[in-house]
UniProtKB/TrEMBL annotation, chains A, B:
Domain of life: Bacteria
Entry-linked Gene3D superfamilies: Winged helix-like DNA-binding domain superfamily/Winged helix DNA-binding domain (1.10.10.10)
PROSITE patterns, alphabetized: HTH_ARSR_2
Keyword entries, A-Z: DNA-binding, Transcription, Transcription regulation
SUPFAM superfamilies tied to this protein: Winged helix' DNA-binding domain
Domain HTH arsR-type: 1-97
Listed name of the protein: ArsR family transcriptional regulator
InterPro entries for this protein: ArsR-like_HTH, HTH_ArsR_DNA-bd_dom, HTH_MetalResp_TranReg, WH-like_DNA-bd_sf, WH_DNA-bd_sf
Record flagged with keyword Transcription regulation: yes
Molecular function via GO: DNA binding; DNA-binding transcription factor activity
Length: 97, 97
DNA sequence: TACATAAATCGAAATTATTCGATATTCATG
DNA sequence: CATGAATATCGAATAATTTCGATTTATGTA
């Protein structure tokens, strides 16, 4: 867990919104064809008003920081929050900040 | 409390180090002439290997984010952690992240 | 194999962050 | 009022971030 990588990833409103929307996929991504239990696929996040390539870059940043997990199923990649890393980060911040 | 301002302020190793060193001034700034109860004055942070103007800019960023308080005494400005804002931020992260 | 869809990557432009040295400001002291 | 010390601000160079459209890659399907 790289704390600075995580802080840099969180220091952006769009990425914070992505992480937040992932907390309740049923509320925020009701249009997804695939079951939301699998996760949310990348294209769904374009409703935040960003282009496909920008969304992809943000998701890559979140993944690099360990804040989301990915799971490929066919041509789709499903994203979920990585609650373990998020909890570990929050605990570290409580302790060290 | 602007969460994004705080996250941006924290997403930098130098500023994180400043905040951390302020947790135990007696350990990290034993050379300061003035009593450390007043806080730590800006020039003390130059021991982190950054120039005076760079340190000043980092302290300004931390102050703008509300993470430190300042107190002017004569020609010195003493810095302390703003534990209230830090605690508020940590609580918000626990709740919202 | 050809085509369609999802996502990643590339290249470029605009903005923001980081850092410095030099200069300005603020305040105390002689 | 002149000087010195602490801090802030300015201007500039460089690097990193953000964003896009275009292209590429990977996968599934006709």
């Amino acid at each position: 867990m790289d704390k600075n990588e995580i802080l840099k990833a969180l220091a952006n409103p769009a990425r914070l919104e992505i992480l937040n929307h992932l907390k309740d996929p049923y509320a925020h991504f009701p249009t997804q064809e695939h079951p939301l239990e699998l996760g949310v696929c990348a294209s769904q996040f374009e409703r935040c008003g960003l282009s496909q390539s920008t969304v992809s870059a943000h998701l890559s940043t979140l993944h690099r920081a360990g804040l989301v997990t990915t799971r490929r199923l066919g041509q789709w990649i499903f994203y979920k929050r990585n609650e373990e890393t998020i909890a570990e980060f929050l605990a570290a911040m409580q302790k060290e900040l």
